[in-house]
Every structure is written in structure tokens, then in C-alpha cells.
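Action item from last meeting closed. Structure (97 res):
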């Protein structure tokens, strides 16, 4: 980024770019929040459970994966009541294949 600015004839250093990016001058952007906010209203169709069932149809797995996925999305969206480390783990898939 600093090289593009220098090529444009503006004197700056890497420190200037870092200072700008970490300042209040830079608008906050969260790609997941931007994506989720751009989606239409939920149509009531559960898409997480069929995704989980592609791995296993065991009820415990489907319910656990569903809960984990919804919790992860809520955490990424910054929903209140969801701890900072609420989803600091991920399911590990093990297969004989």
C-alpha cells in the first residue's frame, strides 16, 4: 500500500500507512458482518442440519453441529451474551476413509 502511495507522488513510510490503518480515520469493516447483513430475511428453511447430515445422520452430531454453527455465527456477528471465546474450538472429523 505504501508503494502505491509513493508512486502517486505522496511522501510516506510504512509507519505512516500503519498509523493510518490503526487510526479512527479508517472505517471499520468486518467481512462476515457485511456478508450476513446483505442477505435477505431468513426464509425459515434450515440449511445447517442438512449440511451436518452430509457428515453423519447421528442425532447427537446433527444437533451439536447445528448449535456450534449458530453459536459461531452469533459470535462473529458480535451478538451480546456470546463470550469472546465461546467458539474457540471446532469439530474434528475422523473417518476410516
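Sequence:
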Amino acid at each position: 500500500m505504501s508503494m502505491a502511495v509513493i508512486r502517486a507522488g505522496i511522501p510516506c513510510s510504512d509507519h505512516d500507512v500503519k498509523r493510518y490503518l490503526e487510526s479512527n480515520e479508517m472505517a471499520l469493516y468486518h467481512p462476515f458482518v457485511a456478508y450476513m447483513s446483505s442477505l435477505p430475511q431468513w426464509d425459515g428453511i434450515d440449511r445447517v442440519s442438512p449440511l451436518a447430515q452430509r457428515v453423519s445422520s447421528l442425532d447427537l452430531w446433527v444437533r451439536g453441529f447445528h448449535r456450534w454453527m449458530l453459536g459461531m455465527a452469533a459470535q462473529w456477528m458480535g451478538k451480546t451474551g456470546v463470550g469472546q471465546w465461546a467458539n474457540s474450538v471446532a469439530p474434528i472429523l475422523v473417518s476410516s476413509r
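Note appended to the action item: Residues 2 and 16 are 8 Å apart (CA to CA).
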